[in-house]
Amino acid sequence: MSSDLFPNADTPPLADNSRRSFLKQSGGILGLALAPPLASQAERLTAYSKVIQGATDITLRVNSQAHTVRVEPRVTLLDTLRERLDLTGTKKGCDHGQCGACTVHINGKRTLSCLTLAVMQQGKEITTIEGLAKGDELHPMQAAFIKHDGLQCGYCTPGQIMSGVACVQEGHATTDAQCREWMSGNLCRCGAYPNILAAVREVASQSSKG
Amino acid sequence: MNDFSYTQAATAKEATDLRKATPAGAYIAGGTTLLDLMKAHLAEHPQLVDINQLPLKGIEQTKDGLRIGALETMSDVGEHPLVVQQYPAVSQALLLAASPQLRNMASLGGNILQRTRCGYFRDAAFPCNKRVPGSGCPALDGDHHNLAILGVSDSCIANSYPGDLSVALTAFDAVLTLEKAKGKQRQVPLTEFYLLPGNTLQRETVLEPGELIVAITIPAATHAQRSTYLKVRERSSYAYALASAAVGLDVQGGTIRAARVALGGVGAQPWRSREAERVLTGQPATEATFRAAAAAALQGARPREHNRYKVELAQNTLVRALQQVAG
């Protein structure tokens, strides 16, 4: 079977290869370093019971930093990031999970922050566009978007970049067709797709050489 | 979204107890359908019970087939080697749906319970028999180009389940394990899970209030191994199906020993076509047979002005899918 989903024909998509396992391992080590010990257990809202009603203090770990914010259960992660934590890099496009502008990583997986509640994400490691660069050193995906002019108005760009980073890590950017398919959850109304594709594919090829 | 209370349930018992105490509440897993509906004021719940901590995960072989925990995500199941190898149509249905981000979030149980994308249902400014019983159905004479042609009624032509997974699960005889309270489980075949639009349009499945989907089991079969999911849509990715086909064939010596056929995008529910299966079984795996099966599958179609094209589209989709698996 050969398709845009699995361009590498007959092998099952999870079949390991050195690049992906390297990325997974390195991601795992990074994850370990960043995650609080047994966070999901420790920070679970203690047994039966704790009903959260109205504005309540919760702790979110964003870009390796713990933040305590007071939110109602109905507040999305997206609104919490933008309105409470001043992390406005993550964009609100459609607010209904149709455009990808709000993409962040939760425990390393690309996720739509508009369709999850902040209260559900306690104890997780959340990474936003602000957490990619190391000081003044841009993440390779950010640098590639600049080099390939992967944007016009820029509104979808943080989501594109967060999705692109994950797409490469997942091993879903090995061909142009596969990369288009696995980046299809991020819409760009300006139509910068060819340049976005070039940027993500370049980072993927660099990763495989590394 | 309306204001609501939120509780993270630690056990299934706790979750079902909470729902029993507040019947108007809802479970939340991935949240991708529920929060979308709540933001659009199409669903309002005074309480959400977060079930993500429940032990409803795991993908394992059992004597009844592959058992998948209802909290497994679309991504993890779609790329799982056992699913890819034994149920290619299920894997493809999952990975051709939604976007990578949504697939990372959405649980299988939630996917099965997604609601229609009928524009009139989703816009509270319009009447809708599904939303407000007896208010009318503007889709009948309005824009219904993406709506159903099989199993429709005079009061609703929505494809109640617009997705892909349940189409493949319906084809391959999957069975849901439902749990209403501790120790109270029942098994329901996917083919009997969805309800056609009759007198109780708001009731779309046999799931009872507070009942949880805990697992999905798909029997092992040669026709499931030799299967595919073909999806036709208005753009090449990230869109709902206009028509889709989940098919599986067991072909020996050029003759079809067993066949499974289900259609998506055209039915008021995921549309298993036993008529097509009867036409295929025992016949040579040729285009003539496939055409006859496709004609049988669409025989009961009741298209309207803007979705008449779906009759031919669904037939061609089915024929091509059968050709692909017949090889």
From TrEMBL, chain A:
InterPro entries: 2Fe-2S-bd, 2Fe-2S-bd_dom_sf, 2Fe-2S_ferredoxin-like_sf, 2Fe-2S_ferredoxin-type, 2Fe2S_fd_BS, Aldehyde_Oxdr_Iron-Sulfur, Beta-grasp_dom_sf, TAT_signal. The keyword Iron applies. Residues 56-132 form the 2Fe-2S ferredoxin-type domain. The keyword Metal-binding applies. It comes from the Bacteria. CDD domains: fer2. Keywords: Iron, Metal-binding, Oxidoreductase. PANTHER family: OXIDOREDUCTASE WITH IRON-SULFUR SUBUNIT (PTHR45331:SF2), OXIDOREDUCTASE, IRON-SULPHUR BINDING SUBUNIT-RELATED-RELATED (PTHR45331). This is (2Fe-2S)-binding protein.
TrEMBL record, chain B:
Pfam families: CO_deh_flav_C, FAD_binding_5. It comes from Hymenobacter mellowenesis. The lineage of its organism: Bacteria, Pseudomonadati, Bacteroidota, Cytophagia, Cytophagales. Residues 1-223 form the FAD-binding PCMH-type domain. PANTHER family: XANTHINE DEHYDROGENASE FAD-BINDING SUBUNIT XDHB-RELATED, XANTHINE DEHYDROGENASE SUBUNIT C-RELATED. This is Xanthine dehydrogenase family protein subunit M. PROSITE patterns: FAD_PCMH. The keyword Flavoprotein applies. Keywords: FAD, Flavoprotein.
